[in-house]
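Memo to structure team: turn this sequence into structure tokens by end of day. - J.P.
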Amino acid sequence: MGEIIRFVSRSERERARLIQEARAIYDSIFPPSDPISDGQDKATGRTISGGDRDNLS
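Reply from structure team:
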């Protein structure tokens, strides 16, 4: 009762599907980082502060 049905074009559905597929591929290559290691340099395990980022080569 009173339900509204929204028309979604084929191209819009295809665009949404492609975006979802691309995100899945990206996540399989670059897994989401866990919150504990955010902000840490993976090679050394050091936390990177604002000043240290400018000195990285």
